[in-house]
């Protein structure tokens, strides 16, 4: 018998550019953003109290930090029990995918899977955002506007070590009263049921 996902969101999560789903630049309705966001959270098992977003993309000409260092920081935070989600534009799959590929631990790969409005909601609920740049628009700029702790790597020396960034990330997460690491993160796989 065939298995099927519990949610139709699986069909909608194909990689696509991060762009509003509404035609002609009309913003999505708040109810639709809420529904899309709730479905994304449920489908991926996102735990907002321990969510760390990694955005390795850059709005500048060249990314500021190597993907291997992103992976090292993500692995260290995942080992501490933080849920890691890689976000970014579907137009940069080699960079976002390279971070996931270089990691030794599990992470959610959400690059290109949501509208900018839904990403903004996710940033607002995250406990930390780690990204290459703070240019507007960027996840770091959104995090600053929403009060989400963030680390902008373009504001640091280019040779900043992954250990130094992981230490800063741990310190930032320790200051967030609603942030709670759990057991080392294991990837949530949506349940599939087999018809009998």
From TrEMBL:
<dbReference type="InterPro" id="IPR002201">
    <property type="entry name" value="Glyco_trans_9"/>
</dbReference>
<dbReference type="GO" id="GO:0005829">
    <property type="term" value="C:cytosol"/>
</dbReference>
<dbReference type="Pfam" id="PF01075">
    <property type="entry name" value="Glyco_transf_9"/>
</dbReference>
<dbReference type="GO" id="GO:0008713">
    <property type="term" value="F:ADP-heptose-lipopolysaccharide heptosyltransferase activity"/>
</dbReference>
<keyword id="KW-0328">Glycosyltransferase</keyword>
<keyword id="KW-0808">Transferase</keyword>
<dbReference type="GO" id="GO:0009244">
    <property type="term" value="P:lipopolysaccharide core region biosynthetic process"/>
</dbReference>
<dbReference type="InterPro" id="IPR051199">
    <property type="entry name" value="LPS_LOS_Heptosyltrfase"/>
</dbReference>
<protein>
    <submittedName>
        <fullName>Glycosyl transferase family protein</fullName>
    </submittedName>
</protein>
């Amino acid at each position: 018998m065939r298995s099927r996902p519990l949610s139709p969101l699986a069909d909608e999560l194909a990689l696509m550019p991060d762009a509003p789903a509404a035609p002609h630049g009309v913003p999505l309705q708040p109810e639709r953003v809420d529904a899309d966001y709730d479905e994304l959270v449920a489908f991926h098992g996102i735990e907002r109290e321990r969510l760390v977003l990694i955005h390795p993309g850059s709005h500048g000409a060249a990314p500021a930090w190597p993907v291997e260092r992103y992976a090292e920081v993500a692995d260290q935070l995942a080992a501490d029990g933080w849920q890691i989600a890689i976000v970014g534009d579907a137009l940069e799959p080699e960079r976002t995918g390279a971070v996931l590929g270089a990691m030794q631990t599990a992470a959610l790969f959400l690059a290109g899977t949501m509208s900018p409005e839904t990403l903004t909601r996710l940033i607002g609920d995250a406990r930390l955002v780690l990204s290459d740049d703070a240019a507007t628009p960027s996840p770091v700029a959104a995090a600053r506007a929403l009060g989400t702790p963030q680390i902008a790597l373009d504001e640091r020396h280019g040779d900043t070590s992954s250990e130094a960034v992981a230490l800063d990330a741990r310190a930032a997460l320790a200051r967030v009263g609603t942030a709670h690491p759990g057991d080392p993160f294991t990837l949530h796989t949506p349940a599939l049921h087999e018809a009998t």
